[in-house]
Amino acid sequence: xxxxxxxxRTTNRRVIEQFRAGGEVEGMHRERLVLLTTTGRxxxxxxxxxxxxxxxxxxxxxxxxxxxxxxxxxxxxNLIADSRxxxxxxxxxxxxxxxxxxxxxxxxxxxxxxxHYPFLVDHQAKARKAKRVIPIVELSEEDLG
Length: 145
Fold this sequence. Notes:
The chain is an alpha+beta fold. The protein is built from four helices and seven strands; from the N terminus they run H-E-E-E-E-H-E-E-H-H-E. The protein has helices at about 5-20, 75-80, 105-115, 120-130, and strands at about 35-40, 45-50, 55, 60-65, 85-90, 90-100, 135-140. The chain is globular and about 35 Å long.
């Protein structure tokens, strides 16, 4: 495991603990954070990651930018294998489904996200060099009825 990976894991553990404790999350805007739990595609273990989210009307969206890396983040690969997720946001927890946006919805939403988060332009440029399109994922509450 590289030092960078160890640092990210340590930071993620700290953020998850602080978020669940209900107080301030050191170095982050709590009101922009979601905890997303996916099932590991190889291990079958539940994995939780903190990340920024965006509200688009009633939709809760996350972006699999991976800071423009050549590969999708692990959490995204996990939800492609199993779209059932657990979402912790705004003091609520729910079981949900994670569905990538497609077509015109993706294009419209990406354009809107770039207006709110200009750093995504740089992430997309880096990803495109590796022939990767950055996914946008909608997290919706499962209909348990």
